Prior knowledge:
Number of helices of chain B: 21
Helix content of chain B: 40-55%
Largest sheet of chain A: 22 strands, antiparallel, barrel
CATH architecture of one domain in chain A: Beta Complex
Oligomer: heterodimer
Distance between the termini of chain A: 39 Å
Amino acid sequence: MKLKILLLLLICGIGTATYSQIKISGKITEPGDPSGLPGATVVQKGTTTGTAADIDGTYQLSVPDENAVLVFSYIGMKDQEVRVGKLRIIDITLQSDATLMEEVVVVGYGSQKRSNISGAVSTISSEEITELPILRAEQALQGRTAGVQVAQNSGSPGSALTVRIRGISTINDSSPLYIVDGIPVSGIDYLNPNDIESINVLKDAASSAIYGARGANGVVLITTKGGKREQQGQVSYDAYYGVQSPWKHMNLLNAREYAILANEAHIAAGRAPLPEFANPDLLGEGTNWQEALFQDAPIMSHQLSFTGGSDRSLFTFSGGYFGQDGIVGGAKSGFERYTARINSSHQVKKWLRLGSNLAFTALTRNGLPENNEFNTPLVRALNIDPITSVRKYDGTYNYSVYADTDIANPLNAIEQTHDTWSSNRVVGSAFVEIELAKGLTFKSTYSLDATYAKQDLFFPKYDLSIDTTLRDAPAAERSVTNTVVKSDYTWRNWQWENVLNYEHTFNTRHKIGVTLGTTALENNFVFLTGSNTNLPTNNVLDAYLGNTIDPRTSQGAGDGISEASLLSYFGRVNYDLDDKYLFSATFRADGSSRFGVNNRYGYFPSFSAGWVISREDFWKAEDISFLKLRGSWGQNGNDKIGDYSFTTIVYSGQSYTFGPGEIITNGNAPLEASNPDLRWETSIQTNVGLDVELWNGKVNFTGDYYIKKTEDMLSRVPIPLVVGVRSPFQNVGTIENRGLELSLQYRDKVGEFKYSLGGNIAFVSTEVISLGKGGEPIVTGNVFSAGNVSRTEVGHPVAAFYGYVTDGIFQNTEEIAAHAFQNESTAPGDIRFQDLNGDGIINEDDRTFIGNPTPDLVYGLTADFQYKGFDLNVFVQGTQGNEIYNGIFRYDFFYTNRPQSSMERWRGSGTSNFEPRVNLNDPNFNARASDRFVEDGSYLRIKNLQLGYSLPQSLLGKLQIQKFRVYVSAQNLLTVTKYSGLDPEIGTVGGALELGIDQGFYPQARMFLTGVNLTF
Amino acid sequence: MKRKNIITIEKSAFVVLLFLSLAACEKDFLERNPIIGSTLDNYYKTESDAVAAINATYATLQFEMTPAGHFRWFWGDIMSDDAVKGGSGDNDQPQLAALENFQGPTNTEYLEAEWAADYEGIYRANVVLEKVPAIEMNEQLKARILGEAHFIRAWFFYNLVTIFGGVPLADHVLAPSEYNMPKASAEEVWALVEADLRAAAASLPVRSGYPASQLGRITKGAAQALLVKTLLWKQNWAEAKTIAEEIINSGEYTLVPEYKDIFTTAGENNSESLFEIQYMSESGGNWGYNSNNEGTFANVFQRARGQFEGYGFNIPTQDFVDEFFKEGFEDPRLSSTVFREGDQMGDRGLFTKEAVGGVNVFDFYPKKFFNNKAEEASFGDPNPNGGTNDRVIRYSDVLLMHAEASYHAGNEGAARQSLNLVRDRVKILEVTATGPALLDAIYHERRVELGLEGHRFFDLVRSGRAVAALGGLGYVDNIHRVLPIPQSQIQATNGALVQNPGY
Lengths: 1016, 503
């Protein structure tokens, strides 16, 4: 009975509720297509009440009262809101949001509609950023925008990326300025890519000149997600899990082949072959060190976020975890990152707004040595002989009796590596914005970017000897002492920025915008390190500084400290007439403590103008719905010149030992000359561009051509060594970049099948115009067995490869006699080098430029397909016209392994014209820097292939879920390249002039992932 | 309405104040000088500054990787008939092989590194000579410091003139307008060397005049010994003889009784040491330019490869070893100079070719820079720098220079006496020869007594015997008596420097 009453009450209750509701119905369509938009959604604003349109685009929905506001939306369309009022049938035609020209673009100290921008600015949206699982935010830039070249420095988890906007424009640091929510930050590895709302790249000087002395390499503006006004609270969970594996092994000699070549080499050198290689066939395949080195490794990410907003307050909370192990060393090169973020803003008074953004990141990265030919696991695995087994019979790691000096067992070396970098970083800002009068606002922002990091290193004792008293293992396989090193790093940067903004439209035609501001900024860096050797125990858990029995001789310490400051004044005026004629001018004055006293302030002007031709009355071509011509000119600077380069420091530590106890006695001396005239590098850039939109946004095209000249480039002009100190930095060099950037997007739909295709391509050519008085080339790129292989010289690209030109193989002694003199011991089977200057002798004067590490063009292609709930995304990216110097193999040793192509060696007249004879010695220096080691580094890579399925709205509406999507994805699925090494995608490691030299890069993994996106 | 205006004014005032406060602190805000380390303007004011300045000048004596190697034994031994390059094979430092065959290119990093290190030492000595006189300090100490600076400057110019011939005479800290300094003649460089050494000898204490804690500092004897060498180059036999006798008669130096003890760790700064560059192994593992270590890389470079954990450079030739058998018996010094198969390499094991392994295995390895495993640094580097001092000038060298000078000055008796003092120490027959045979005996004695100590190439050139000894390797007298000026320096001076003839 009671139950019945309860049921009755419930039914009545529901009935009552239903009774008071208003039923709405209608049809959702798109322009020019009355067939309806199935799957389009209708939601009552501020609630989870909603539904999805049927197959014919019709819908029905009940709302509580006439004040309800309905939000109609569909992917690729602009949201539309309608207040119910007296309406009961609401038919809606949604407009395409494809008109990129209407999007709001973040520019320096403000934002503008894309249609009104006269500089060169590219935008990457949050959808594009999260499309592929990326570890670092820089990856989102790769292949997405024309003129931004991004290369992974290494496939090692957490490693930095090289980002170049419009090419390499200086022989010094070419990395761009990163501004996150108005805060200049040193690197963006702390950002969780999921937190990013948009990335805007300021490419031309006019756009970046408002950042003055820091803008020369382009500016990357990142905006993180905040809440939206009147937004219903939203919870999102995004996660993926994947497995990474190597996509390539190099083709190396197996044990049999190795022994055959070793035997021939001994005989050629007049020595008896090694007895153990008497029958190479018995040795078979031997050890595949690459197989032993590489492993599958997991990657995963979890992200939870909450956003919402009322009419006065907006907020976002988010937290994320990312973890990735390496395909070399697993956890030994693993990376973990925890992120948390709170963004909020509040309209306290009508004229007063406050807000703050706060991000915290804790990350841990384990490191293995990378990209050098001495101690990296990769070079060791590729160079160690295939005869040696990974382990001895007793299960301990084996050592090679053949490989020399540096080539130790890579697996043991990984196991003995304990290198952990962990950092805690807080990036936060708080602002006050006051509306002083209508259109006139003042904003004051204080921000802090503080990183507290530490590195823990432990080098244990080990000995791979069979009998440790005999020390039968080579030196590189024995470590007789252990050492612990612990270092603390603190970076603390603050900025205080004050900006006045005025916007007004006069007579509805003249739109004026004025921005004035000041910035004060200070960078501080403190470093402290301690070390301890000869620890009484050899366990990594005991690796602490105090673990010593003899503190006096075993412990060491060091420290460092530096600071820099910047004080700036800047302004901008925008004037738009009828939204047709666009003008903008900026000016910035930057004072920097890094500049010499004689040049404390730098001044950076810029101008730009645009003409929206399609808005002219005479414009009749309806197919071309938007057409804008742009032009800009501007100057900006690069202040990455070191904190104290202008002065001469008398350095301590120039020590000598005196006395019977060999007491280290301090000495002080200057090491370099000073330059009080030191200043920024100036870059002057002219840009012309064209924006075209066809058929109301179906096709979008943007093209830009620029000439960028970097003057006053800093170089240590090699003063004669007779001076006795290093030359100071001087503002001497000039580099010119010219480039063309094109991007094209096409969007269309056929029935329920929607697709978009996009592509961008950038051509850039770089030429060194001057390197100062004398213009002596800068020689870099040391490869141990070949010497320096890179040269930066006037009239050539930056750090181009330089060496000898091969001309086949000497087939007989007559050919040697007929050719220019190479070496007394040159024999048939040796490489013939071209006598470029025709003087009858092959020497250093016969070297020339043999390759360019910088691509002629960089491109990216994307394709998106949607059908009902399915979506497919393909992203292809590549470079063309760059070369790689393959410096992987240690030709200074003989008993190291070699590429399989060595089997094609010369064995007698006519047997080979490209692979020289084998010999224990190399009197002809066949291993010298030559085009033999320069390979085509072009590649095309299917960076991402992703297939997703979203549950239909009709189902989700009932579950009160806005979005539920699952996907599978493959990264680096296919790479097309002629390069023989492990990975053609090579960044900059070491100096700015160490480009495109492969000395054992950690290759990128191929990944297969599966993930989920859930929003409710 | 009024209220609103007030708010606006208040707000505006706040904004103006903000801007003003920024401008007010501007000057100090942008003045950032290094927080650690003095700058040139506020240094060289006190006695301790002066001491630190001369110590930093000593530090350049240790330079041997700046950043390429430029060891004394590169030029003195590998360039001569005593040793060949060695290493792991032909592609291990190939330019060095080219140099020793007199086919060297003119821009090798080794020569550039030598040039750079020499001039860095000269610069630091010049700083001392210019800055220290004005410092108010103990005058005796000041005189000593200036004497040390004179010696070190002379030492580097001596290296330059013997390796390159005439070079820029940077006898003061150069102003930017002087950077493109042309070469002075070899005679002018020699004159500066001589003047500096005389100044040093006049103001430096004798060896016993230093407290023990200052062991390793340059002495009057060192300055005199280098002056004797200089005078031999200039064939000023009479004065060379006189000054050598001043050293001999000073009573500061005696020969170590056992030859084999000279090159041990215990034999560092022994009774026959006149000029010895100090190294120690425990200062750290860092390699490279101006790095903070006090070690030498001669140890690791010269040790055999494989089990002996070295790089196998400076390999003694058969011709050199044969020299020890010239008198019909094995000279006892051979076993202190060269390792032969079957010899015990200290605590590192027996020298067998199997133990060396690799492609480039040699019959002989150099011994004078051999260090025991037990003496090696404990900082964990498998190939650490070592602590073996570089014995640049020993008393036996002084005696043999005295013999040579006396011979040429016509006093064969004095020549034989000094020569036989050296021979007596190793208990071999005294020389009784006269005339050219006596001179040959002195030359033989130099090669055997001072073998692999970086003298041979320069002895051959100085005494006009280089063509005979090295002609087969490609040595042409009027070209190869000096090495080429580094090509980079000719470019850096816009051609103000001129390449040596023949290169």
